[in-house]
Amino acid sequence: MTEKDAEAPGLARLAALIADETRAACLLALLDGRAWTGGELARHAGVAASTVSEHLGKLVAGGLLAEERQGRHRYVRLADDRVAQLVEDLAAQVAPGAGAHRPRTLRASSAGSALARGRTCYDHLAGRLGIALTDALTGRGLLRQDTGFALTDAGLGWFEYAGIALRPTGRRPLARACLDWTERRPHLAGLAGAALCRHALDAGWCVRIGSGRAVKVTAAGERALSELLGTEAAELR
Amino acid sequence: MTEKDAEAPGLARLAALIADETRAACLLALLDGRAWTGGELARHAGVAASTVSEHLGKLVAGGLLAEERQGRHRYVRLADDRVAQLVEDLAAQVAPGAGAHRPRTLRASSAGSALARGRTCYDHLAGRLGIALTDALTGRGLLRQDTGFALTDAGLGWFEYAGIALRPTGRRPLARACLDWTERRPHLAGLAGAALCRHALDAGWCVRIGSGRAVKVTAAGERALSELLGTEAAELR
DNA sequence: CGCACGGTTCGGCGGGCGCCGAAGCGTCCC
DNA sequence: GGGACGCTTCGGCGCCCGCCGAACCGTGCG
Questions:
Q1: Residue contact A91–B16, C-beta within 8 A
Q2: 3-state SS assignment for residue A232
Q3: Checking phi first, is residue B230 left (phi over 0); if not, alpha (psi -120 to 50) or beta?
């Protein structure tokens, strides 16, 4: 029993880092996987620069953010994929509360939203695009979702055939499920998800829209994915 | 951008529920998967009954706990396995900070701890026992960890052969990785992990030690697991 | 060289929240 | 029916923490 008590303060301190609305807004913004400057985050969250400066100090000290200073700018980004996963999980947990009507309105009324169609979630693809790719991989027997969440041997072969290298780094799992907050369905994250996203951007299959995390599939991407996964162009839009 | 701002308050509110040390202690205690009374939790956390009563009210209102009232007792338990998973994930995230020396001391100095040997984590087996079973399953090709975390077809057959029914309920994944906080390694959670744990207790493979979440393998359990998974008795202790 | 600008530090204000003890309510048991 | 017990409500206390504006520091640019 006593060892649990030893954990409680740490758990509370970690949660407290996320428990502030301004810090939460920063973390969600940083889910796009990029580095933001303090000023950008301040404007985004609608608070004074001095306020955000203190918040970033706490988040960095708490290990949630990594910082990089360039000239007079302070760039921060999520410390690693574990933190990104954690924030996504927490965000997914809070959404079901409004989940009964949220997906409807998001998909229907604002179906024109570029974010709902496709976006990056930290370092992998999400939104309808992410779901479509995950479904295509599953449908062709490259990804198993029925007994967990893992690539099959055929799936490993597919990545190799597609020219997407999967070099294991550290202990990050190859495949991992990430729950989408608009579609309410799991999509491919982990090392393979990140590699696929990176390749999609590098090879010109997708391009970023504006400065946010929204992405859209290009004509070349439609052709390549149709050939590699048999997807219909309409599914990707 | 605006839809992220809409999420920030919810995220902060959820995190705030965990951000209090007393509430964190309650959540960690409830990770044993059982229902506790308010008084028990108050004594465990070392605060007045009135204080814990208010905390439980918030946790229930926030959807993290489910309550059941019986006579003059108020029983609470974690609302569902998603909440349990969330708390485990957060606890696992905080541990690495002290992870450099923690595991050593836990395994070495207090290697006699029954909790480190075997315990239940919400509704599945953890500790060295959980790791040993997960390793055995993986070693025999019943569980894949190299490309994600999923049972193989042979694994499905094994559960059937062992007489452990895996009836899918809701959307809970069949296999899921749960990071152990003493061993720092993933072990089997999800539907299959829960079914295995339940069967192990029902069939007398394991028995609970005292009233906590510590468990130990019986002689009958050693025989059964040796036959079914080829484990050595020493690995399970 | 000097101004503009991003970031940080500091003091002070205000609100929120966890804590307790006392009092009250309902349940169970003798 | 009376008393013990578990839980809840309420008032009040104290602390912590997020916020701002002002002053300050350093970088980069004209």
A1: no
A2: coil
A3: left
How far from the centroid of its chain's Cα atoms is residue B138's Cα? Answer: 20
Interatomic CA distance for residues A63 and A80, integer angstroms: 9
Q: What is the pLDDT of residue B237?
A: 81
Inform me whether the pLDDT recorded for B205 exceeds 80: yes
Longest dimension (CA), chain B: 60
* Interface probe with B: pick from A90, A106, A137, A213, most Cβ of B within 10 Å: A90
The answer to whether residue A129 scores a pLDDT higher than 50 is yes
Over the stretch B89-119, which tens digit does the pLDDT of each residue have? Answer: 999 888 764 444 444 344 333 434 677 788 8
Tokens of B232: 């050595």
The H or E element that residue B179 is part of is: strand B176-179
Residue range B4-9: mean pLDDT, rounded: 78
Task: Determine the Cα–Cα distance for residues A199 and A163; give it in Å rounded to an integer.
Answer: 9
Rounded to whole angstroms, the Cα distance separating A63 from A61 reads 5
First to last CA, chain A: 53
Q: What secondary structure does DSSP assign to A82-127, as a single string?
A: HHHHHHHHHHHHHTHHHHTTHHHHHHTTTTT-HHHH-EEETTEEEH
* Residue position matching structure tokens 């809070």: A94
The answer to whether residue A104 scores a pLDDT higher than 60 is no
Q: Is the CB of A48 under 7 A from strand D?
A: yes
Q: Which nucleotides of D are covered by protein (CB under 7 A)?
A: 5-10, 17-23, 26-28
Q: Which residues of B touch A113 (CB under 8 A)?
A: 3
Split at pLDDT 50, 70, 90, the class of A165 is very high
Structural domains of chain A in order of their starting residue, each with its CATH number: 2-79 (1.10.10.10), 93-236 (no CATH)
